[in-house]
Design goal:
The protein has about 500 residues and is an alpha/beta fold. The chain has three domains: about 280 residues, Alpha-Beta Barrel (TIM Barrel), CATH 3.20.20; about 100 residues, Orthogonal Bundle (Cyclin A, domain 1), CATH 1.10.472; about 40 residues, no CATH class. The protein has 23 helices and eleven strands. The strands form two sheets. The protein has an eight-stranded parallel barrel, surrounded by seven helices. Strands 10-11 form a two-stranded antiparallel ribbon. The protein is globular.
Length: about 500
């Protein structure tokens, strides 16, 4: 039987999957991190560049101050960061100097574990980013094999890709990442032995799979049966749905099957209860198990993409296009050479499918993003691209403008000269990848407590309306009323 170690993804992937990445604030970290610290997790997946951007853009909070707080409140935990290795916050490629600065800062602020995964299975990019992470001082770099379904994504394909990582001294281990929840127990039992057969130095003993089809809890049990020792999971209310398996039930299932798990279930329950309390306070949803959907294995479009598409179509007055766009997206993916259907490629595929349906001819217009994709912005396509579409992309004004142009990446010194030599490294990074007004607002609010009466009055300032506030705690109560002019 396997001695299983759990990796918690509640505050990162659970937050992104269930709360659209916006549910976690400084307050959440302050409330939950001390509880997570004593659960006995192998690691806590805390950040992606998206989470950093959301802290600035939506909450006007300093992501590095938040990271410092997490480190202080959970001194025993291994904090982890996930990167795709080509972009940091923006959808386009990030200059390597900026990526290296980001990795340096993450390590400086207490992150010790990094997951590196290239969605297009460009292993050269994965190796390069592993080297950058080790240069920054990360203790552990875990390289990912990103799983999807298509005629080209066979067991042999993955076995060949994983072999390209085996001799990289900057990689400590490999994990199987299933961002759309497409793995089944049967496929896993077939795939893992073939992957292991192509490794001589590294081990693949970690798995990350979502609950989109409802099969993830069973797939994780099969992983433990195969000797995979590190399983990703989440706590309610951010478990299940399109998120990860419920960690509390997963422990019970593993133990019932005879595997050992060294965690504190009482501490995990306390952390889950505190997350539920935060969700109720901020009117955030709680995910529930999903019903099995066989069609998901055909279109592989995650629920969030489908929901957003339906909402946008309803706003346009064209809700009847939803089913046709899903069908067209399947064709577009094949035409483009079977890219994996994850962010940002899922959005590229769906947007192109919609354009194909509302124009007179399929591919009479190509989005800039699809052109960039075909130009190799994110590495080579895993399969053969439809030649007619490739020709159209290469003949586009966007492609012609880029032909023969050698894009020289800026140095860190050049970036600093552009934004200000007196900036801290943290502010320099944010200004290099985010709109100036968003960073300006965050900087202006730096040091203020999140929430509370002063924050509420700040939000009301400048609005021509009356206000009233009632606060109750224990047997005490406080009521205030006035106008924004009074508050000022």
């Amino acid at each position: 039987m396997t001695d299983v170690k759990l990796i918690d993804v509640s505050l990162r992937d659970g937050n992104q999957s269930v709360w659209g990445a916006t549910g976690v604030t400084d307050r959440t970290i302050r409330e939950v991190m001390p509880l997570l610290d004593v659960c006995g997790y192998e690691a806590i997946e805390l950040l992606t560049s998206t989470i950093i951007a959301v802290a600035v853009r939506y909450h006007k909070q300093d992501p590095f101050a938040r990271l410092d707080m997490a480190r202080r409140l959970a001194p025993s935990a291994k904090l982890g960061f996930l990167t795709t290795g080509r972009r940091f916050i923006s959808f386009g490629q990030t200059p390597k100097a900026v990526l290296q600065l980001a990795y340096d800062l993450l390590r400086r602020h207490g992150v010790t574990r990094m997951w590196v995964v290239d969605p297009m299975s460009d292993m050269a990019s994965t190796r390069e980013n592993a080297h950058m992470a080790k240069r920054a001082g990360f203790d552990e770099v875990v390289a990912g094999i990103c799983f999807t379904l298509s005629p080209v994504h066979t067991d042999a394909f993955y076995a060949q890709k994983i072999a390209e990582l085996d001799d990289c001294a900057d990689i400590d281990s490999i994990y199987l990442k299933d961002p759309s929840g497409l793995l089944t127990p049967e496929r896993l039992r077939c795939l893992v032995p073939k992957l292991r057969a192509n490794l001589r130095r590294l081990k693949i003993d970690e798995i990350h799979t979502h609950c989109n089809t409802g099969l993830a809890p069973l797939t994780l049990l099969s992983a433990a049966d195969l000797g995979m020792t590190r399983l990703h999971c989440a706590l309610p209310p951010v478990a299940n749905g399109s998120s990860h398996s419920n960690a509390l039930q997963l422990v019970r299932n593993l133990q019932a099957r005879g595997h050992s798990v060294s965690v504190d279930l009482a501490a995990m329950q306390a952390a889950s209860d505190r997350l539920r309390r935060e969700a109720r306070l901020h009117n955030l949803p709680e995910a529930a198990p999903v019903e099995y959907d066989e069609d998901f294995y055909r279109h592989t479009l995650a629920g969030g993409v489908l929901t957003t598409t339906r909402r946008q179509l309803a706003e346009m007055g064209r809700p009847e296009l939803a089913a046709r766009i899903t069908e067209e997206a399947v064709r577009v993916r094949e035409d483009l050479g079977w890219p994996i259907v994850v962010t940002p490629f899922a959005q590229y595929i769906v947007a192109q499918a919609a354009m194909n349906l509302v124009t007179s001819e399929r591919y009479s217009r190509l989005s800039d993003e699809v052109i960039d994709l075909l130009l190799g912005e994110f590495g080579p396509m895993p399969g053969v691209v439809n030649q007619d579409i490739l020709d159209r992309a290469m003949e586009s004004p966007r492609a012609r403008q880029r032909q023969g142009v050698v894009r020289e990446e800026p140095t860190l010194e050049e970036i600093r000269a552009r934004f200000g030599v007196g900036l801290s490294d943290e502010d320099l990074l944010l200004r290099a990848v985010m709109p100036a007004e968003q960073v300006d607002t965050m900087v202006a609010r730096r040091g203020r407590a999140d929430g509370g009466l002063s924050a509420l009055l700040d939000e009301l300032s400048g609005q021509d309306k009356s206000w009233s506030v009632s606060l109750r705690t224990g047997n005490g109560a406080l009521s205030l009323a006035g106008t924004t002019g009074d508050a000022a």
